Amino acid sequence: CRHELQERFPSVAQQVKESTATAVLDSYAKAAEKIDNTCTLIPWLAPDYLLSGHIRMSPARLADVLREIGALEFHEVTALLAAACGRDIAQVPLRELRATVAGLRQLKDYRALAASLQPVAHAAGLATDDLPALYTLLKTARDLLAALTNDDIALLSRVFQAYAPVLGVIGVTADDLRSLTAMTSATGKPAQVVRYLELHGRVSQHPDLRAPSRQSIADFYAKTHKLLEHQMDARFKGLQNFAGDVQKIIIAIKAGRRISDEQARVLFGNLTCVIAEPGMISRHLPMTEDLVDYLIIDEASQVSIADSISLMLRAKQIIVFGDELQYGAVGAVNISERYAAQYFKDILRDYALDMNAALSDEERDRLAKEAVQEQPEDDQESSRVEPVSAGTKEWLKTFSVRTSTLSFAKALKNYSDSLNIHFRSFPEIISYSNDFFYRQSQIDLVPNRIRTKPIGDVLRFLPVQTQGNSGRNVNLDEIEAIKADLERLHAAGYMGTIGVICSFKEQTARMEEVLRKELPFYTELERDHRFQVWFVGDVQGEERDLVYYSLVQDKRWGNADLRTIYPIVGGTADNIRRLKMQRLNVGFSRAKDTMVFVHSMPIADYSDSRLGDALKHYANIRDATHDVYVTDTTVFGSPAEEALYRLITQTRFFQAHRGQCRLIAQFEIGKYIRQEYHRYIPSYRVDFLMTLGSNGREKSLIIEYDGVEFHTRNPDVVTAHNFDQEYLEYDVQRQLELENFGYTFLRINKYSLLPHRPGETPADVLNGMLERAFV
To answer: Which of 1, 61, 5, 45 is closest to 28 using CA atoms?
Structure first.
């Protein structure tokens, strides 16, 4: 033991040698007691300092350090340590102070880390203290960044640079990469944007991409047409290989029998298209599912669902055309109520069996009564639609025999659209239907024709002096007036088609009888001019170049009452969806070039029915129209100019100032200036000169259509933004020269008429340009 003491503590061993072990232990015990007492008085003072630390730092130096720590410079630190330890700093041991300082340093590092995570947490929508969620997010981000390459990031940056406006449509921005999730949607605008990016990327791969010329497009369609004709001819010739089957098909149809499935496959395997009435297809084609690829039903408002539903079951896809503002399935509307009720009850019974649905006798009787109940003439409606609604039985009324195929299709449609281009009539003729019917249904018809006749030749009013009562719903004097006008047209060599629409059936029969008997060229009229006389309720689907309207009624003689044919103002039938009202829409949209109103009363006397509104409408147009028309459409320099002419005349501005506006196509302005100002100027010609007279003064506007191919230096680089910088020097010089004579210009190109707001049309855009030009 002494040997170990000598090795480990030689100074103590020396003291024991010089004294005794007991004395040494006693002195050490007293020293330890003093150290403990001192540490109790000064808790932060470590015992090691009293034993040996005072050698490295003297008590005087320690006192100086303590004074420095107590100074104001370190007050915040000492206060923080005291708060962390929960007692006065002087009472805290040094070991605890060290541990507290280490903890505060960790807290400082944690807070710095939390501050750096704050933007990440905010962007991810997480709380900063939600450590598990933040960890998962950062781990996912780390994995994503590890998978991304610099090329990927550069590509994403280029996508935002090139397509920022397009991506902005669906809310995707470079400032918020989370918005990229919007592009994962498979429907709506996001899907359209993704499709656009794909197509644009594909197109951009072609280094020399130029818009095809008009001739190239024409050549493409011509070749496509020839190819289609060749394919159709080849299929049709294939019937020669099935002569026996063809003969069997002909015999079966003549005998009124249904052909077999095999014969139908032969028929449709060698014919591209079969055009027939619904009844013929129902009678003769087999009831086979998916027999035809496409079933197209035209004039669907006139076809009862009873005639078409079996046709639909034979088709893979169905396309329905119809006008809900023209006659409905009139034949079905007039069908026996008893027959219609039984037909509908059979449908309800089959529905209940097939769907295992409970349908009481009372409910079945109620639905049948409501679906087939005969309506007074004023209440008859052609386009009533029962929307399909889950949990109800009311939609079953869609299967009523009185429902038109158009209404049925509207109730069950996958897709629908409205065609707004009108090809048949001059704008002034179709204007009544447009203003009073289609515009109320949010369809603004755009006539595709330009008037090539004076307004007096388009809208003619032929007054008749009635000599007496010719009988109920008959007016012989109007028949004589029409006969005389037909004789005049025949003598003048009129070449167009002719028809007569009568407001009463009795007048129709008498008109045909008299004309057939008294006109020596009646057969020629039928053969060469497709002449026909109709009752106004039977004329849908017809059209003629010239149409006479025999109104019949003369209140002086009481021979007829037009209120039984057309709706009374404010009455039950005064609704664009009522059959009575639709007689006006159908009747006044049959003429292509000329309407002749044969009337036995002043126009104002027809005001007790909606017919009066129509007559006043046409009379006002005839009287107010400043005769703006072109005698020959070949005057236009291009199809685009012709289309622009139509668009100008259809704007609200032009219609509102019809009486004060003049629009001259291909105006020889150079010749006019030389004559007017006696100044030399080249023989300039402008596409259109439009003038507006007001208060005795006239303002002129030159309207030019600038085709990219003919008016720009480099068509390949022209865009909507730089068009005005690419004009040919000739165009710029000509405009400056004409502006010196006081003319203003409105230059139109294929970009300037593009709509920018939802629901806006090119006519709306042009209307705004005209308003700004003339204000």
So the answer is: 5
Average pLDDT estimate for 378-395: 63
User: 146: buried, middle or exposed (CB in 10 Å: 19+, 13-18, 0-12)?
Assistant: exposed
Backbone angles phi, psi at 699, to 5 degrees: -110, 140
Tokens of 446: 């755009």
Are the C-beta atoms of residues 536 and 529 closer than 8 Å to each other?
no
CA 116 remoteness from chain centre: 47
The topology under which CATH files domain 422-624 is Rossmann fold (3.40.50)
pTM of the model: 0.60
Q: How do the domains of the chain map onto residue ranges?
A: 148-204, 337-412, 422-624, 633-774
Round to whole Å and give the CA distance between 598 and 409.
Answer: 39
Residue 531 and residue 525 in contact, taking contact as beta carbons nearer than 8 Å: yes
- Contact indicator for 69, 116 with CB cutoff of 8 Å: no
Backbone angles phi, psi at 745, to 5 degrees: -115, 145
How many other CB atoms sit within 10 Å of the CB of residue 549? 28
Q: In what order do the strands lie in the sheet with 544-550?
A: 459-463, 591-599, 544-550, 498-502, 532-535
If one counts every other C-beta atom within 10 angstroms of the C-beta of residue 668, the result is 14
Question: Taking a C-beta distance cutoff of 8 angstroms, is the pair 469, 445 a contact?
Answer: no
**Higher-confidence position of 667 and 630:** 667
Q: How confident is the model at residue 712 (pLDDT cuts 50, 70, 90)?
A: confident
**Which residues is 596 bridged to in the sheet?**
460, 548
Indicate the length of the chain as a whole number: 775
H-helix or E-strand spanning residue 421: strand 421-422
Secondary structure (3-state) at 315: strand
Q: Do 322 and 406 form a contact (C-beta atoms < 8 A)?
A: yes
Nearest to 310 by CA among 399, 389, 383, 388: 399
For the residues of 494-536, what is the DSSP string, one character each? --S-EEEEESSHHHHHHHHHHHHHH-TTHHHHHHHH--EEEEG
What residues are paired with 318 via a beta bridge?
295
d(Cα 346, Cα 332) in Å, to the nearest integer?
17
Radius of gyration of the chain (CA): 47
C-alpha closest to that of 179 among 161, 160, 198? 160
Tell me which residue has tokens 């299709």: 409
Whether pLDDT at 92 is above 70? no
Beta carbons of 687 and 681 less than 8 angstroms apart: no
